[in-house]
């Protein structure tokens, strides 16, 4: 049964259109289960009916002609309940309805499985038997699994118009849903790209000449390094300095001990270079895959893509040049930064990936380049869209395949509005983030890597509000020493000087393990992570503090941020260690100064002790991502509960107010550095509350600045007052969208000005 399932799924996925996919389903399932009839009914919601679209066992002439009123018969019952129905004698069921137009006899055995996509029943897959028959559990599971495969094919067909052609009167076109990654609207032609080398297909093979394999591997690494340098030069005029830093991430991974030494060790143990590389990449990528932090988890795709690049050179593959057309919509299952960089900027209109999220390198690059992008468009059959016309709605993560005249016309209008909005935003460069009544809200940058060749940072930021230090630790196979860390920190401090740079101390844990410091925990979010680890391992903490203090000598633009604080005792311990490191460096002759020190408020306990925390430190920084997850007990990466995650939940808003009140007692400033800071909708609330500064990704700076410059603090306080009376996040969002529309800025969060 499992082998039959595998073959049928493969055939369905390779089917050129929905009609062929349905034919495969009914023929193969009937044969595999040994039923007398297999049919597929699809729901026509426009006309409220179930339509027979494919059958093996009933009259072929009935296809498309047999239409049941929605909810009638056993087909309607399966659709209503959205669960399988298995009857050994369906004829005696009160909902049984015999349809003579199909030429059917009295069938007793009945198994109906709903075809479900995103909680919506699209149709019913039906098996019939003349004799009484109760289908077995394995058979039910088999049919349900196939029904789920059919759901994706139906969704795609509805989007590209195939289903409309199968039905006499057609239905409205629909979109394929995904995740918004870069705002904007794009219309163009799909150009599909795919990895030039398949690591998973590499077999194990004994190395006949290990040193020759070593030479080939190191040569391939050198060639990839040259490719990276070439792409960085090619794209530097189109990318901001922050986005160019992503190439540094690749170089850092490429030159890491984990990648180089791990592969060399496997080669010298007997495997040939491609096989050794495959195992090393798999091991390295798994470290990132197991993390719960979205930003770091996305790095696994970078590791795999890097492995494919090396394998390409190892195999001496020469892929045929891709023909990019005007208004190219780049489409792929797992796009890489280098594949995007390969497209001439003047030809690139949009990006679509079936995997990833807004925090992937692809999403970051797309925002930096101002290219609309949709990620995780899982239902898009990549192999079938080459050369097809696409519409990409980067605001909502939607993709339309072969859009009809109405859809196309509407998005052409929206694209024109979007171009006008982008032009207006460019006029804000170099202007302060200041409300109409003179209240300034400094906008800082969140970052994790900085390019050596970059200029003095983004002009639109007044500094770095959050510098993540985890990645240089993760890509190594040992803890980096003081000198290596100091070099990294010195670079970012110099590039932004005299603007302040807030460096967060190491924030690793059960959800972000180091390959050389593994931790297995049942609940990593509530486990050994952040400051808890570094205080338990003071040698790690002291080395990092010494490195950042030395890196700031002569610059004095450093600020230190302590993550995952839940007790005042943790702050007291950390401060003692920081003072100890400072005194040690003074004794060694270094002219170091103690910088401002702050704590992250991301644990509910810290909210209730913010006054005591503010007494001990110089500033507070709110990590709204984790704070929201902890307050609402929601893992936003868990599909079952992700819809409950909302930073506009009244509990989150009240927590922010409590943090501000506690900080105010001791005259401490409060910044917000989570995703909420970069959301134009949130600007009303954060300005109204009196948040002192915001820190966000580069792509959000101008949009948030536009909102701040368009409102008064008085108006923001009025909106906040009403928001605090709302009882759920949806009501808050509606209020904020209305407020944004009232100042003519609704286009910042949706298509159209």
UniProtKB/TrEMBL annotation:
It catalyses: L-histidyl-[protein] + phosphoenolpyruvate = N(pros)-phospho-L-histidyl-[protein] + pyruvate. GO terms for cellular component: cytoplasm. It is an enzyme of class 2 (transferase). Its cofactor is Mg(2+). Its EC number is 2.7.3.9. Gene3D superfamilies: 3.30.450.40, Phosphoenolpyruvate-binding domains, Phosphohistidine domain, PtsI, HPr-binding domain. Keywords: Cytoplasm, Kinase, Magnesium, Metal-binding, Phosphotransferase system, Sugar transport, Transferase, Transport. It comes from Thiocapsa imhoffii. It is found in: Cytoplasm. NCBIfam families: PRK11061.1 (NF008283), PTS_I_fam (TIGR01417). One of its GO terms (biological process) is phosphoenolpyruvate-dependent sugar phosphotransferase system. GO terms for molecular function: kinase activity; metal ion binding; phosphoenolpyruvate-protein phosphotransferase activity. This is phosphoenolpyruvate--protein phosphotransferase. Residues 17-164 form the GAF domain. Belongs to the PEP-utilizing enzyme family. The lineage of its organism: Bacteria, Pseudomonadati, Pseudomonadota, Gammaproteobacteria, Chromatiales.
